[in-house]
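Co-fold these.
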Amino acid sequence: MTDLLIFAIFYALLAFICLYRLIKGPTAADRMIVGDNVDILICCAMILFSLFSGRGVYLDIALICGLFGIIDTIAVGRYLDKKGRFHNVDSDHR
Amino acid sequence: MLIRIIVDLLIAVGLVFACAGTIGILKMPDPFSRMQASTCISTLGVLGVAIGGVLYAAVVMHSASSAIKIAVIALMLLVTNPVGSHAIAKGAYSHGYRPDKKMETDDLGRDFDE
Amino acid sequence: MQKTKYPAVAATFIVCFVFWVLLDFSFKIEEIVAGAVVSLLVALFTARFFIRENAGWFFNPSHFFAMIGFWCFTFVGELIKANLNMARICFGGCKDINPGIVKIPTEMKSDYGLAALSNSITLTPGTITMEVTEEEGQNYLYVHWINVQETEPEKAGEAIKGTLEKGLRRVWQ
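Predicted complex below.
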């Protein structure tokens, strides 16, 4: 039974190590990649912890975590895309 | 007892690939290569946990609802991940981020930057 | 903006309701009725974004089993091969990479075929689809490739998507 808890702690530790790139990353795209992957790793850790503790509530938390991860990733991606095109159009008209 | 060993092996294989993706995120030189490395986390890292978790919930815990819910979560992560990855790659390229090193070929920049 | 069609609403309703039953997994009559009402409302508003072409296509058993066979056998084989390759690069210190963006032609015509092919390419580690364009009736994909071996469009396309496209051509045209 304890092995699942150990695997869950390892997954959460990987998510914690990823945060180094979030602090240091030179561009916004780097920070967004880290955000996406931290969501996925925390989702996996939640699934393993739900199996360890035997309560189904953590599975719902994992589902919501994955859904919000994909929504904010797509939002920031579209934002970067629109901002780049706007700058190009602006410099053409000047 | 045998099923516990199989579950542990599956989750350990997923952990190894997640570790490879984390090392790639920390050490790759430019944003697009970091994105390539991070795909390892969201494919085999998730699949190992999902297959192991479905086996554990169905055989050891005898709870069908948990097994089906884990399968639906893994399916949803696998289907929606390439959409977000494509959105970040296209947004970063059209925002003006380019790799530090000289690329081998750059057909997209040749066709769209004029 | 397309108009809402009733076969598309029915297909979207069936997909939403199946997901409700799988996630809820309790068979009391009140919860089934509540799920049906919510699924019908969601289907009425989102059917025109979800289904553009023939609505009954997915419920044909031959197409369904061809898709299941592709995702469960051909694609998983490619996925494991690419993952081992990427893990070898990452544990070796991220040194022997040779990134580049190549332009490859594809035979796919329909929207669903292009979406499935580009999402499959993105989901294998080592390749990311960045843009899809059409020139003179031929569709092209721009793919970021971490280890460029070929710069000719035909040979690069064969190396990136040869197996995947052969598997997907059995399902879509």
